[in-house]
Task: inverse folding
């Protein structure tokens, strides 16, 4: 979730009213944001991902003023125009869309520019898919000559933002930090470019804007662009940026639209600040929440949350959601705002008596019994991670297992294909203790069967002692199944970390349910273990089946 | 009452005391006896009391006195009495001298000198006028006799005898009397006789019962060695259930008690079930490599029904209006939550009235530290039914908090892509204040639809149970929940919370 930093005086300036810190914190809570830190006039909070309108002081000031009743409910937005055009007919195929919006009459200072920059950055990282789906740009309109074009070019030259000399587009990709970071989003020789009618480069999206027409404290009229691949998302982002910039007119700025020429599947005019009208059945709200207030409650609560209530009867409320409420998709979103605006603390929790008996999973019940037996046999229970070092697995002799494509640490770069590696790691962890060491773990592992990852429940155990042989392991296995009233037969078996010829497959009622063996000295040397180790594993899904306890299928990702 | 010719059976330790005392001649101070036994005086008192009770010895407490020289007495014996030294000094100074000069010449301090001068004056040997001391010509015989009497007396005291003039010496603080109490033990006649007649025997002492002793009845004449409770015994530990497993089982019990049926799902999931069926758009930041472990090198999931793919496509393309990619959806990931288990259950069980839970592991890229892990347990659950509401979800959290003894619960709005309304439940931690523990919400209509259901509400939650386990078990480092270190496991006491 994005962490946003604002100045309290600036939020108050946008809201056009004084607010106490307590009031702002109360608003943030209702709006699902969480205060991280307050120092002097700086407030840092974590905004919720579904409220991108709160990624800067403009949106917070607006929402707080409305919630606290210090600003009239949000009215519909007037949009003049279209006042000019954007031709996107020659856009690059892989990034085909660009939309514009104009806000006239803003007053910017250092803090306002900082906030608008923060808004772009947070949107880029979240909703814009790190610029892959949408990228945003702001310009000083007075330094440009409309109309505009969004085109694919082989190359061009301009002074990128933050530099003082012109560079070719390929140079931008090589020499600038943003160029290096986002080069993968553009195709060489088919670069996207935003230009004005004089041919002046505005932006090389989604990499860098031009230094020449950037927004400064002198800027009065702002041009906003979004370029990208997902029109609907782009329009939502454009709406949030446009309505935020509009707040910097402090009631005096106006929005102008731009005609979009030459694109299929794109709107003809942008921005679209019409918002969304929703009819919400109040009995549906009651069925979902278990509560719905009076019509007055509903009106007051929704208007505090930024909606405009057009009509409310005993059965239905018709609301207009402003264009910056990107999260409002359907009636349930309005229902949540009714509950949140009313206050979750005021909803009475209600117990729902059970309709059926509860039951543990079969594998957990089998696990419990086997755990008792293992404890009775003098084994200590341990817990290991399911994630394990892929390199270690290979050293132990495993070839097939689920490996992670993007591990954070090599220590945790694979999923254990068996409990045996965990058992051997447990012996290593406890080498300080005086032998004999007897440990077991009941847990899940993921085996690869014909390239299909399968979760199963295993019981792993290990014995380490100065003098030890397979006999000691077999004694345990036989004791365990004797306690379960079953006979065990043995067959020569194998398991990657054990010695071939000193490993047994465990068979119960003609079904192989596990294996036990002497751990290979190669493995012991690798891990620095100086005692002989016998380790075994039972597959509890198979044990349950072999003993006729019940079906406990192993789990594949197939739905 | 013991007869005259009875055997006297003593425990070995007591027997030794008696034997050694006889060896010392039948009488000895307790110190000497203890020294000979190699034991402390305080340690043999009980044995002596036992021997005295049997009439074998008598414990005699004696008070003894002896004379002793004081430091002044020692000085007088070595260098002469002060009055003699003053007299000699006066002689050396020609029979007349001021007091100050006498101090220097005699080497006696001021106070002593005055006392000595007093004695000389009373003996009529000197006179003092205006701070000047002068010899009187007279016979010194009587004086010198008394001096030699005193020296003789001091010599006798130094040899430990009482001289006739002890009282006078004591008055002059040249000697003192030292009083000491001593304990002497003495074999009685009866004891000596019994010993002589070989009637004093050593009892066999039993330090540990053996099958032979029990079977032979040998214990009947024997003495049980008294157990020394001050000596520490060896430390051992029970083999035990892992503390975290203990806690998880308690959680299972609670959920089962609330009417929930446990379900399980695979740890490797497709993005389809982990995200897409939950209405998380494919461009959502939670689906990036920083938040999800992707499976390396395995083919995409096969054999998924067309209906499911189309249902999911529809909710995404209608709801989020972007090009939904089934190829992307069929990639395999390590499940980031257990919510896909709930989705599977809904697809399997449909639109009835039911409640299920799962309590298993999920994975998210992280570097382990005291509060983060790359895998952890999630307590997942859903309540499905036509009349299930958000308030029932709040009711569930409240009840669970009560069962786990977590105290007050507070609810705040929250955001999860697949629930609406969404809630975060907080509990009050004694040190940390309000902490988030219960995230949940009502499944969005899109999620219910993607699972192929309609006309039901689903209350859902996915609780990171590790955090609560740490609170209950009193563990401060999350890594210790997953420990395979037996010393660490032993160090965690069984929590009272799971026994209530």
Result:
């Amino acid at each position: 979730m994005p962490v946003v930093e604002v100045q309290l005086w600036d939020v108050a300036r946008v809201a056009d009213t004084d607010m106490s810190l307590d009031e702002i914190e109360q608003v943030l809570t209702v709006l699902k944001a969480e205060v991280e830190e307050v120092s002097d006039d700086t407030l840092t909070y974590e905004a919720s991902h579904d409220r991108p309108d709160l990624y800067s002081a403009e949106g917070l000031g607006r929402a707080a003023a409305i919630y606290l009743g210090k600003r009239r409910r949000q009215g519909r937005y007037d949009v003049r125009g279209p006042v000019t055009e954007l031709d996107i007919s020659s856009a690059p195929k892989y990034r085909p869309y660009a939309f514009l919006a104009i806000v006239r009459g803003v007053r910017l200072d250092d803090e306002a520019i900082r906030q608008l920059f923060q808004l772009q950055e947070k949107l880029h990282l979240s909703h814009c898919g790190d610029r892959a789906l949408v990228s945003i740009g702001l310009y000083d309109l007075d330094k440009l000559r409309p109309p505009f074009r969004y085109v694919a070019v082989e190359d061009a030259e301009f002074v990128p933002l933050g530099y003082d000399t012109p560079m070719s587009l390929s140079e931008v990709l090589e020499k600038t930090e943003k160029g290096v970071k986002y080069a993968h989003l553009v195709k060489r020789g088919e670069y996207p470019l935003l230009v004005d009618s004089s041919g002046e480069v505005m932006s090389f999206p989604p990499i860098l804007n031009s230094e020449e027409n950037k927004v400064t404290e002198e800027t009065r009229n702002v041009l906003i662009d979004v370029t990208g691949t997902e029109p609907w998302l782009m329009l939502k982002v454009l709406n949030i940026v446009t309505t935020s910039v509009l707040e910097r007119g402090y009631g005096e700025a106006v929005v102008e639209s731009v005609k979009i020429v030459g694109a299929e599947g794109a709107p003809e005019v942008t921005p679209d600040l019409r918002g969304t009208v929703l009819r919400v059945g109040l009995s549906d709200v009651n069925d979902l929440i278990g509560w719905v207030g009076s019509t007055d409650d509903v009106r007051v609560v929704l208007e505090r949350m930024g909606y405009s209530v057009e009509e409310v009867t005993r059965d239905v409320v018709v609301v207009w959601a402003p264009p910056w409420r990107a999260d409002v998709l359907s009636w349930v979103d309005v229902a949540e705002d009714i509950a949140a605006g009313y206050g979750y603390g005021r909803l009475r929790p209600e117990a729902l008596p059970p309709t059926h008996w509860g039951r543990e999973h079969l594998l957990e019940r089998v696990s419990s019994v086997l755990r008792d037996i293992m404890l009775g046999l003098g084994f200590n229970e341990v817990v290991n991670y399911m994630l394990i070092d892929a390199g270690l697995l290979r050293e132990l002799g495993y070839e097939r297992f689920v490996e992670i494509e993007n591990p954070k640490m090599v220590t945790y770069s694979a999923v254990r294909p068996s409990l045996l590696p965990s058992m051997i790691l447990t012996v290593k962890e406890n080498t300080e203790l005086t032998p004999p060491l007897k440990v077991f773990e009941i847990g899940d592992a993921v085996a690869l069967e014909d390239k299909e990852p399968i979760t199963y429940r295993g019981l792993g155990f290990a014995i380490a002692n100065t003098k030890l042989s397979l006999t000691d392991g077999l004694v345990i296995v036989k004791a365990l199944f004797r306690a379960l009233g079953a006979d065990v037969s043995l067959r020569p078996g194998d398991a990657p970390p054990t010695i071939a010829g000193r490993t047994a497959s465990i068979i119960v009622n003609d079904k192989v349910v596990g294996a036990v063996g002497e751990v290979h000295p190669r493995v012991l040397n690798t891990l620095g273990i100086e005692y002989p180790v016998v380790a075994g594993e039972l597959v509890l899904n198979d044990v349950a089946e072999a003993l006729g306890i019940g079906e406990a299928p192993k789990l594949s990702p197939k739905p | 009452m013991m007869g005259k010719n009875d055997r006297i059976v003593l425990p070995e330790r007591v027997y030794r005391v008696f034997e050694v005392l006889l060896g010392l001649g039948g009488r000895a101070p307790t110190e000497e006896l203890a020294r000979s036994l190699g034991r402390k005086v305080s340690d043999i008192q009980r044995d002596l009391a036992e021997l005295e009770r049997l009439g074998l010895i008598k414990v005699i407490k004696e008070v003894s006195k002896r004379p002793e020289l004081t430091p002044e007495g020692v000085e007088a014996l070595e260098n002469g009495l002060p009055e003699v030294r003053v007299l000699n000094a006066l002689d050396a100074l020609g029979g007349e001298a001021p007091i100050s000069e006498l101090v220097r010449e005699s080497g006696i301090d001021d106070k002593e000198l005055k006392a000595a001068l007093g004695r000389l004056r009373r003996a009529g040997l000197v006179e003092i006028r205006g701070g000047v001391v002068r010899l009187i010509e007279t016979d010194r015989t009587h004086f010198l006799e008394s001096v030699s009497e005193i020296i003789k007396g001091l010599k006798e005291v130094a040899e430990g005898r009482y001289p006739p003039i002890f009282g006078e010496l004591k008055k002059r603080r040249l000697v003192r009397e030292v009083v000491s109490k001593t304990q002497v033990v003495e074999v009685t006649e009866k004891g000596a006789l019994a010993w002589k007649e070989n009637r004093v025997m050593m009892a066999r002492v039993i330090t540990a019962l053996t099958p032979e002793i029990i079977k032979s009845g040998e214990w009947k004449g024997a003495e049980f060695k008294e157990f020394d409770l001050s000596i520490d015994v060896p430390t051992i530990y029970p083999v035990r259930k892992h503390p975290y497993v203990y806690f998880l089982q308690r959680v299972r019990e609670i959920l089962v008690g609330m009417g929930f049926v446990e379900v399980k799902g695979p740890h490797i999931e497709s993005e389809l079930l982990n995200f897409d069926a939950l209405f998380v758009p494919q461009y959502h930041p939670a689906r990036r490599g920083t938040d999800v472990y992707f499976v390396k090198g395995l083919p995409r999931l096969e054999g998924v029904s067309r209906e499911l793919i189309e249902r999911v496509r529809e909710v995404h393309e209608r709801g989020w209006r972007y090009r939904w990619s089934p190829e992307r959806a069929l990639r395999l990931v390590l499940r980031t939550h257990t919510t896909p288990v709930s989705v599977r259950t809904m697809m399997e069980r449909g639109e009835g009235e039911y409640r299920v839970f799962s309590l298993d592991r999920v994975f998210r890229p992280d570097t382990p530290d005291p509060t983060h892990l790359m895998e952890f347990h999630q307590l997942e659950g859903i309540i499905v039914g036509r009349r299930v509401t958000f308030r029932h979800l709040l009711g569930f959290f409240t009840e669970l908090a009560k069962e786990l003894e977590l105290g007050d619960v507070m609810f705040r709005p929250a955001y999860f892509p697949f629930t609406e309304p969404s809630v975060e439940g907080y509990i009050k931690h004694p040190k940390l204040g309000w902490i988030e523990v219960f995230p949940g919400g009502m499944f969005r209509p899109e999620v219910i639809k993607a699972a192929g259901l309609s006309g039901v509400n689903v209350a859902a939650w996915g609780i990171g149970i590790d955090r609560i386990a740490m609170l209950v078990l009193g563990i401060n480092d999350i890594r210790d929940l997953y420990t395979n270190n037996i010393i660490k496991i032993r160090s965690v006491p069984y929590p009272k919370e799971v026994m209530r």
Observations:
- The mean pLDDT of chain A is 94.
- Chain A touches chain B through 99 residues (CB under 8 Å).
- The two ends of chain A are 30 Å apart (CA to CA).
